[in-house]
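Pipeline run #58 for the internal structure catalog. This entry was flagged by the ingest filter as a single-chain record with no existing model, so it goes straight to prediction. Upstream metadata was stripped on purpose; only the residue string is passed forward. Reviewer on rotation: M.T. Logging verbosity set to normal.
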Amino acid sequence: MYQALLTRRYLTSKVMPLLAAVAVMLCVAMELIVWSVMGGFGDMLKNSGRALIGDVSITYQPRGFAHYDDLIARLEADPLVEAATPAIETAGFITLPQNRGQPIYLRGVDGPGYARVTNYAQSLWWKPLAQPMTKDTRREDPRLRPDYAARLREYEEAGLSLTLRRPEDPEPHAAVVLGIEIGHFNSRQPEGWYDPYLFLPGQDVMVYVIPTDSRNRPMDARGLNFPVANQVRSGLFEIDNSQVLIRLDALQRMLNMDEARRIAPGGSAGSFVRRVNPETGREEFVQPQEFVTDPARVTSVLVRGRGADQVPRLTAVKARTEAIYREFAAAHGDVPAAEEVEFETWRDKHATLIGAVEKETVLVMFIFGVISVTSIFLVLAIFWSMVSEKTRDVGILRAMGAGRAGVAWLWLRYGLIIGLVGAVLGGVAAYSVVWNINPIHDWLGRAFGIVVWDPRVYYFSEIPSVVVWWKAAIVLGGGALASIIGALIPAVKAANMDPVRSLRFE
């Protein structure tokens, strides 16, 4: 009973112990903010990596491989595979409105299939919203406007199909979807929404690629005009500033990877003959036996596994994918062998960056953990001073029958209360900072020109703002434990005081 009474009295009448609580608060807030940002950076990197390519990619550059429909059918028949889709990946160049141009990373995809394997549908930006983004309290996002809903819904459908109908032309045209940062036509606001300087969907752009011949030698550049169907945001600045999605069949034609006829060995181009079709009465060319058809090709097949968000399951999906491809290669003699093909998971593709982030997180947490040890010594020094000051109080307690354990528990309890107060305040401070870290950063940029988080350097267009509960529990528990450790030596000293000498203390 007396421990609670004295703890409350010391806590409300002394300033020095409150400084110890402030030290614990600052250490807890510092560690939790750093862990949340660094951990959030790693989580965003992993999620964005998986969102772009699915779980596993089968890649053969630059000529690609044929019969991919059969490979996809084999993959989707396996219980470990949820979906698979073809893709072509190549470098290119784009000419944008206002004569802006830049190099791009061009990916030809089948829109609906790509959406089944990746988070493409969720990444499309220009689509109607029913509810504002979390921080858009004033509902300024143009996607919320009712008068834009029909138009945005049209662009959402066009983005999913990568096909757009121009008002002046009823025929559907293959379209492109641009990364949200390409050309810098959109200005990201602190609340997370984009204010378009020029609304790109519906505009025309020119896409250039360099096809190769059968020996992988570059040919003349080829450019075609495409309408913009939508824009996509992955969260990775490097991708959002360079990636362009285009309908698969359009890119196959541009790169000479579509289905084509060629002269078979021993055949000749002059072997075509004319004949009159008895049904139509028109002359037509007859394809002789000397000509064969080359099937269309792709450079990649993207695979989504079942439950592959866990590393062991992801490894199993990769192994099964490779085994299925070996069976596929054995069935088709004109595709590359499995040894020539790359089988990569999303972790493999980003292994260098993911590993660097994880190691940096451990290193930074270790450094800040060492710095936070100072709170232990600060609590120790303050409590040592208080025990020396309260020597007569300790003597009175011992003279009244208090045992050594009771006196020790008084100071340990006091240290625990200080630690809990500091940890809770530190958690509240960390949560407030992390939750508002992007508005705080944007305000620093506007007010003082301080740009700590440049998206062109740090990949992501915004600072991660996630507090994970188990991380917070570890840090808060560590703060309270540090305070108890700091109070341990003074508590032992108080418990071992001689009551007679303590009462004579001046």
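catalog note: The first helix runs from residue 2 to 13.
catalog note: The first strand starts at residue 56 and ends at 59.
status: ready for reviewer M.T.
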